[in-house]
């Protein structure tokens, strides 16, 4: 794995919304930050890590397009993708009018999105989104919502981002500022140009994953209406096609998001070709993102078909039955070594595994790395709990508390979601506390994620109050909305989950295969409008747990 080169940057991925997508888990498409990239000029020793492992699921929730990197705001869909959407429509009872209606309902439930501003069309599994939104992040979130719905083959995103009154010079300054926020180096590896709110990124990165998160970072700046990602990926001669194939295959097998798939992996001249069946357009994007490791020049997913009923529980059962604590430990190390941010700390993190419970020990230089390491560990097949004992010790000259406060305030102002909010930031010995009010849980999570990416910060205490109440729904409406989400977004035997709603509280019972499904059911209940849902669902492929049935925010 190449070592870090002073003066080069890449941007932190989106925070996990320990939902969406991903997100995915679920992931929200949120703003991100910069960290020094790996250089192709030097390489550091790599140890052979066995066959167990999981993905760089940053994306997640949900990932943008990769491979040749058609961007999320592109308004065209490849002809072959259109043919797939028309010729290989999922075999289920979802009529096109129903499909559009389901997507509209889910958009209406999503924070910061308004169904009155977005038009949804559907024909033979090809969904078209149009209308206007206030930010590029909202445009991408709308597409993410559509891609997870059963029966959606592809999404044509024609939503227009309303331009702001901000000048191109101010927007570019903020994009560069975002890069410098997490690293005070002067020389940038990524160059940004802005014209009419449209950002063009040029330069070189070390992986398709870095290319993806760099685009997301630029998209998270207020005033950006589109991002043309012209970044090129350095060729790594140290990784053979055979090594790339083995690594990608292992990452797919150990991903909790791909645990029921049989995917063929082929690599020729650093181009990864994937073939098989997935159950949603969102899962197809995640599969593509998993393959975007360093050394890969392109990922071809033309051979991946979207078939909602392709769930293979025998594959999942075998993978969970066969996994050992040693394999889980190896999987976590592989996930870390292939992650564009956490790779630099793989030798400082020691995962100890006992009966599926992972304890992360060691010292890392950034709070963001600590957070990512926990998520990557939780994303490995066989893991049902993670105890994060990693300590954060900044390895450069630390910023003072006053400097951290200033950097945090400025970073919060860059977000299209937060720039109008009035925050008070306190800092004591690099421990940041956020005070103030926001309108949604999403805004609170974004603020905490941004603060956690500031250099020298070792802990964030997010006490922001959410002022805007949830939509007023009756118990029956919450139940109907949740049952709809379980039917169209759960991709499993949703009839194994029973739903009751009492005084706005959803009570879930039944059986699922994995903890990921357990969490997803909980997330969907919250999305449907339930207050503090109770999750009494049993998990088949894990030992009994002693957790409370009450919802605990992640």
TrEMBL record:
A Pfam family of this chain: BON
Top-level taxon in the UniProt lineage: Bacteria
Domain BON: 95-163, 167-235, 240-308, 324-394, 400-468
UniProt-listed InterPro entries: BON_dom, Lipoprotein_DolP, Transpt-assoc_nodulatn_dom_bac
PANTHER family documented for this protein: BON DOMAIN-CONTAINING PROTEIN
Protein name stated in the entry: BON domain-containing protein
Highest classification ranks of the organism: Bacteria, Pseudomonadati, Planctomycetota, Planctomycetia, Pirellulales
């Amino acid at each position: 794995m190449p070592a870090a080169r002073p003066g080069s940057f890449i941007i932190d991925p989106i925070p996990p919304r320990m939902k969406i997508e991903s997100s995915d888990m679920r992931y929200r498409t949120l703003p991100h930050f910069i960290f020094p990239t790996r250089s192709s000029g030097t390489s550091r020793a790599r140890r052979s890590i066995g066959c167990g492992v999981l993905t760089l699921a940053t994306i997640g929730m949900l990932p943008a397009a990769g491979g040749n990197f058609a961007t999320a705001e592109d308004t065209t869909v490849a002809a072959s993708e259109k043919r797939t959407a028309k010729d290989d429509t999922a075999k289920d009872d979802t009529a096109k009018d129903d499909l559009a209606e389901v997507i509209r309902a889910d958009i209406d439930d999503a924070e910061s999105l308004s169904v009155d501003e977005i038009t949804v069309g559907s024909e033979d599994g090809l969904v078209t989104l149009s209308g206007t939104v206030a930010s590029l992040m909202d445009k991408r979130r709308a597409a993410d919502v559509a891609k997870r719905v059963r029966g959606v083959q592809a999404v044509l995103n024609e939503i227009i981002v309303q331009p702001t009154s901000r000048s191109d010079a101010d927007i570019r300054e903020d994009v560069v500022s975002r890069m410098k926020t997490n690293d005070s180096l002067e020389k940038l590896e990524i160059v940004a140009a802005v014209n009419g709110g449209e950002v063009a990124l040029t330069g070189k990165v070390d992986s398709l994953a870095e290319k993806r998160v760099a685009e997301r970072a630029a998209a998270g700046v207020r005033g950006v209406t589109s991002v043309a990602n012209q970044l090129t990926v350095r060729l790594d001669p140290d990784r053979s096609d055979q090594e790339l194939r083995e690594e990608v295959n292992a990452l797919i097998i150990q991903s909790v998001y791909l645990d029921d798939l049989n995917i063929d992996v082929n690599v020729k001249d650093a181009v990864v070709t994937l073939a098989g069946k997935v159950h949603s357009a969102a899962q197809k994007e995640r599969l593509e993102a998993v393959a975007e490791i360093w050394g890969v020049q392109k990922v071809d997913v033309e051979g991946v078909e979207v078939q909602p009923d392709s769930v293979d529980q025998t594959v999942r059962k075998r993978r969970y039955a066969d996994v050992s604590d040693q394999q889980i430990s190896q999987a976590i190390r592989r996930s870390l070594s292939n992650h564009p941010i956490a790779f630099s700390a793989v030798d400082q993190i020691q995962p100890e595994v006992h009966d599926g419970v992972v304890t992360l020990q060691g010292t890392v230089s950034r709070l963001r790395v600590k957070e990512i390491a926990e998520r990557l560990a939780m994303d490995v097949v066989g893991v049902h709990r993670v105890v994060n004992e990693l300590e954060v010790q900044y390895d450069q000259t630390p910023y003072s508390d006053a400097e951290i406060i200033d950097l945090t305030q400025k970073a919060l102002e860059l977000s299209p979601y937060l720039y109008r909010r009035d925050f008070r930031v306190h800092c004591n010995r690099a421990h940041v506390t956020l005070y103030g009010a926001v309108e949604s849980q999403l805004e609170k999570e974004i603020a905490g994620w941004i603060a956690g990416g500031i250099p020298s910060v070792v802990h964030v205490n997010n006490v922001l109050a959410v002022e805007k109440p949830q939509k007023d729904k009756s118990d029956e409406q919450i139940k109907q909305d949740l049952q709809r989400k379980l039917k169209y977004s759960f991709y499993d035997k949703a009839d194994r989950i029973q739903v009751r709603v009492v005084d706005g509280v959803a009570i879930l019972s039944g059986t699922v295969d994995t903890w990921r499904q357990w969490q997803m059911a909980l997330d969907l209940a919250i999305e449907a409008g339930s207050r503090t849902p109770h999750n009494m669902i049993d998990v088949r492929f894990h030992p009994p747990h002693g957790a409370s049935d009450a919802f605990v925010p992640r």
